Amino acid sequence: GTVHLMECRHCCVSDGSWNPYVKVSLLCDGRRLKKKKTTIKKNTLNPVYNEAIIFDIPPENMDQVSLLISVMDYDRVGHNEIIGVCRVGINAEGLGRDHWNEMLAYPRKPIAHWHSLVEVKKSFKEVGEVVLDPWHVCCMATQAGEWQSAAV
Predict the structure, then answer these.
(1) Helix and strand tally (H, E) in the chain?
(2) Which residue intervals define the domain C2 in the entry (predicted)?
(3) Residue 64 φ/ψ, nearest 5 degrees
(4) Nearest-CA neighbor of 150 among 78, 90, 72, 71?
(5) Quick one: the chain helix, strand, coil %, rounded to 5?
(6) How far is Cα 86 from Cα 41, in angstroms, rounded to an integer?
(7) Which domains, from first to last, does the chain contain?
(8) Full 3-state SS string of 103-143
(9) What SS3 class is residue 102?
(10) 131 and 99 Cβ atoms separated by less than 8 Å
(11) What average pLDDT does the segment 105-126 reach?
């Protein structure tokens, strides 16, 4: 499966400097099977990635997995900060589930959507948006879900 991370927007960081990257975790039955990361974009509030992240997922397992997208702020000396998260997959809620189902229904068509990111530390306040384009996710033997991450 391929996840195409495109861009982020409307994200803010408290200290004013932002070095964002996106971490994509493949989850199955609540367990993280794999995780992959984009490159770090330096000093930008609206990063553009245009990067593909690939997971090998057999077609028969598509109804058991989901993707957790975490937008992170890289810190060279301290801990990396989670800016916000969203989930796409069978077990996701709302648009995350709808997007996954649409992708499965049209496996050869790129389907992009903006997804709101929620802050995990506080009261799940919206902190930005992400565009996801799970593409070819149904054709898991070769490619699984290409998605664009915008406003992550």
Answers:
(1) 1, 8
(2) 1-115
(3) -115, -5
(4) 71
(5) 10, 40, 45
(6) 20
(7) 2-132 (2.60.40.150)
(8) HHHCCCCCCCEEEEEECCCCCCCEEEEEEECCECCCCCCCC
(9) helix
(10) no
(11) 72
SS3 92: coil
Q: Report the half-sphere exposure of 104 (CA within 13 A, side-chain side).
A: 17
Q: What is the pLDDT of residues 26-81, one digit of tens each?
A: 998 878 999 999 999 998 888 888 888 888 888 888 888 999 999 899 988 888 88
pTM attached to this predicted model: 0.76
Handedness of CA 80, 149, 14, 32 (dihedral sign): negative
Q: From CA 151, how far away is CA 127, in angstroms rounded? A: 9
Indicate the SS3 state at residue 54. strand
Hunting for tokens 């990257």 — which residue is that?
Answer: 21
